[in-house]
Amino acid sequence: MDWRGSAQGHITRPLGLGTRVFCFAAGVSLMFPDLVDDWVGGMVAARLIGIAMLATVIAYELNRARKAGPNRTVI
Question: pTM of the predicted model, to two decimals?
Answer without folding.
Answer: 0.70
